[in-house]
Structures
1.
Amino acid sequence: MTRTSDLLTLTPAGLYCPPGDFHIDATRGVARNLVTHAHSDHARGGHQTVMATEETLDIMELRLGPAFCRLRQIVRYGEQITLGDVRVSFHPAGHILGSAQIVIERDGFRVVVSGDFKRAADPTCAPFEVVTCDAYVTEATFGLPVFAFPDPDAELAKLLGSLALFAERTHVVGAYALGKAQRVMRMLAVAGYDRPVWYHEAIAPLADYYARRGIDLGDIRPVVDASPKALAGEIVIATPGALKNGWAEQFPDPLIATASGWMNVRARARQVGVQLPLVISDHADWPALCATAKDVGAGELWVTHGETEALVHWATLEGINARPLDIIGYGDEDAEPIMEDAA
Amino acid sequence: MKAFATLLDRLSFEPARNAKLRLIATYLATEPDPDRGYGLAALTGSLKFRHATPKLVRVLLRERVDPVLFNLSHEFVGDLSETVALLWPEPAERGSPPSLSEVVATLETTSRAAFPAQLTLWLDALDRVGRWALLKLITGSLRIGVSARLAKTALAQVGDRDVGDIEEIWHGLTPPFTALFAWLENQGPALTSVNPAPFRPPMLAHPFLDRDAAALDPTEFSAEWKWDGIRVHAVSGQCGNEPCVARLYSRTGEDVSAAFPDLMASITTDRFGAATLDGELLVVRDNVVESFGVLQQRLNRKTVSTKMVAEYPIHLRAYDLLAEGGEDLRPLPFTARRARLEAFVTRLADPRISISPIVPFADWDDLARIRADPEAAGAGINAPAIEGLMLKRRDAAYVSGRPRGPWFKWKRDPFNIDAVMMYAQRGSGKRSSLYSDFTFGVWHAGSDGDALIPVGKSYFGFTDEELGQLDRYVRENTASKFGPVREVVANADQGLVLEIAFEGLNRSKRHKSGVAMRFPRISRIRWDKPSIEADRLDTLTAMLDQKRTAATATPITQARP
């Protein structure tokens, strides 16, 4: 009988499937790497073969250069691939454009690696697909019950309300360059915000890429096209790294907002000097982590990174056999890097 | 309640004074009576009702949330009110949330026995921001960085008045301040009651920098010690035919009179009359000024026992005289005010009130020598209670706020040692969820050879970026965990050296090392330095002996009850 540990083990490079001879989201160079999504902590360079969705591979090339690996293999959502002794397929994770869960199957025994995921609606990517399995390998970036995220549209309304009260201040919104920035732009367009939305240069290649993939980000313009003074009362999207380096100081009396799940906890918002925290996350919150662990029906739960302790405790109370992996290299700040430079 | 909760939420993240003023003024101008009046009362600390204890709040939540998940959450979030607000289970159907007036009125009348059920009803009816604001309101201080003075300034803006006008009439008004709002919005008669002992914000100093020494003429300045206590204004008004009204104000205008009945007796005498003294609160025993650690025993108290008064005798060291006999002295130059002050304090002949002596000096180099060794320069055994020097322009008027030019502060250089990080703990408040409280040690010869011995704990001095690096270092170099504390790998081969700056050193029987640092902070992270090259305990004890050759003051740690 197949056990989870037959299909998945931990090496210094991260998760490894011995019968398929591949890694998933390896943190150092390996022969064959399957990548869940293009955020830099999960999608690193230096591998021989990288297998991922077309969007993930495109974005890796944008960020790491065309020579980021020797061979690329595009996988479509739902497509069945045989690697060694196992069958592998990719399914939407709802995290960012192109993000996937990876399913490994042998002899009817199925393991799902969630990568980073969310269940909340996101107009910029395909929604999370529930894949039932025997063992579920989940993230737990926000694996504490204090992370029950509010309605993202209500958070966006806070930004628009502040703009009405402080109409002369530039509202600079920190958002991770890949995924969050485009989601906020799309949400503003959907909310009927009719002024241009300005963005930091580092976001440009990814905003262009999303637009090329047919995602309407509204009237967006690079900040370099305007004088900073002219952006009084406007919304500017910036990377967290730019905010940290005082980039926002060029604007008239800037008001610093940040869109991140970490903004759910006041101390985290204060640590980075945010005046207007917007709880808009690309990760599953606690209720979604718990609901998903139940929805997939797995008897075994592995927790890769994040606040693993609470989720393992909860799962144990629920009668699910759970263990923390605490993989070094993902997670914490990196998953939604409020303290780090965005790549 | 929603508007008030939203206001507190925004204020808690907003550091800029003008933005805070706009947020408060907008709230006060748009919320209806009486809610806005109770909101103003909350911001100015004027609400008086029985507070819910953190214990009750914890009990209510424990009935609803698994204890392990509660503890992990509390450890991560730091603040109890916030943890409970975030963890409180959302009811299937939400009742209608209470208004702020309803909350205040109910709190004033609800019995202790009925309170838990009432609180549960409210928590079920409010959203998470509402729950957080309610818990802040009823568990005590708001801690959102808004002083009573700032709230009154915003109120003055609503009526296009000067904040002084509000201060003058504030005394005697009660929530929900309906008549006050009516007057400010020209809907009602003017309020004329005069505050006989108003708060006048103190004058503050800028740090004295090298370029100041180069640019300024020393003969234009007078120097005095900067005492390490609490800056206060002692204000007395309407003496003579009327009964005396006296108040002791902190530098932010909080009325701290109730904690210092011993000093209040000294400023409500006929000899004191109607006067305003600017000075420093100190604990003085047998003519020895005690360190700040001793004074701390008397701070943040609403009332004070007679035992406390006897054990920690309070003293006012006078710096300046702002008003005397109803006359405003603030426009006079410093030298003139100083002459009036000397005469005033001499005439008082009160052992609780003394004058802060002038420190004579020839030039800036001479003053630098004095600063380096206050003990030899006349401070004697009181040197440990001296933070540095104050420089005041002789011709300068007393100006509220921090004007550039007339006043400077020149603090003593801190001591420095290199220590090794030994333990880390998650911080609280701004730092919760990150390992930010560090215990550090120095080398000491033990029975099994050299070992690290803890000498202090610090949670600041580093930048937010460095905090991120320290947090990661702790996570990746954890030797073991004890609840919220992590033991960090620290031995002769491996360990992180922290350069620690501190203001003073005392002998301590409570600490294994025998020393206690005052105000230690992490001045540099020595990623480059091998742990074995950190300082030894002998270095610290030598500093202690050197400092104490002439001093006979009681070490603070022995003075604690």
2.
Amino acid sequence: MLMKALSIMFVMIFTQNYVLVQFLGICPFLGVSKKFDSAIGMSGAVVFVMTLASAATWTIYTYVMVPNNLEYLTTIIFILVIAALVQFVEIFLKRYMPPLYQALGVYLPLITTNCIVLAATILNVDNSYTFLESCVNGFSAGVGFALALVIFCGVRKAVENARPPKCFEGLPITLVAAALTSLTFMSFTGMAEKLFGG
Amino acid sequence: MKKQWQILLNGIFRENPVLILLLGCCSTLAISVTVLGSLGMGAALTFVLVCSNIVISALRKVIPDKIRIPCYIIVVATFVTLVEMVVKAYMQTLYDALGIFLPLIVVNCIVLGRAEMFANKNNMIDSLFDGLGMGIGYTMVLTAMALVRELIGAGSLLGKQIIPEEYTIRILAQTPGGFFMFGCMMALLVWGLDRHGKKFKPEMGCDENGCSNCAMAGSCTSKEKEAAN
């Protein structure tokens, strides 16, 4: 059980990192990585919402949708659950945890339309994870996103000081830098199988 | 009719969703590995975009402004579910190739961005052509990237082996290659526009220029938040 959870964690953070290996959540990855503060804020919000969303969607899928044969509505129900959840979290934090709301508030509405949350919840049920595994999966996918965002934030700072050819200025050189960052994550390929005997 | 033609061309070239508006990066990078997958994804996205644009434009006076984003998401999700079912029932290979990115059309920035930027301000006919133009523009960029990545990365075209496998650059078909190709394509566009005396600097993210050139402006509500604070 613990081994399985650890294995999911390692795979989601390193070998199958959502951003740098699976191309999920590229928009916030490129959009919010300019400043370190906003990168941290966004990552925190993503980890928080993804863990909650994994738990909520798993429960709804297993206890409401499967007994009623509603699996074909997965996409539409999950996105509604996520949208409602994000809204609820926003209201709750504003009321009961103002400091946390100050830190994450601006990034919360962006998360509804962030593809990694929906992807994580859909992949949870596709892989038929248990409740605990789903939560671990959501949490560690969020941590993987955070790791990629923070690393890339540093890389981007260095890139911005460089002088690329004129036509590469701005986003193009940032994308090339992202390519190199994702190249480093390719070195984790196969490590999970060695470590956890996949 | 002339105006509609203009809107259509606008979506394909002048405001190409991927290269100029910088929307929908995730699926562009992930799907552009094979030409067949790109065409399938392009067709699926065009269908969803056209349908959701028409419906949202028709309902633009009914949808309350405060909850418009959730309303858009429901409309888009309905059409995505439709496409998902059809593809799963009749095109199993395409369904496998697109994988998770088919249901993820729901949160694709192009669809939500066009709903916010175009459909809720224009009539149904114009919105239809905008959806069509954007869809074709997306498909074109995706297919162009896939042509290079499939030919050089896997040595094949539409599944047929053309270059022997030992002479291919495999990295182009993998994740880093996606980022790299996209960056190079954008640089090529900037270079081309520069030669015709046009200035274009692709930028993305929250910076001092405000939301005007951010790809997430369409679905982002933080600017209203800032205004409210």
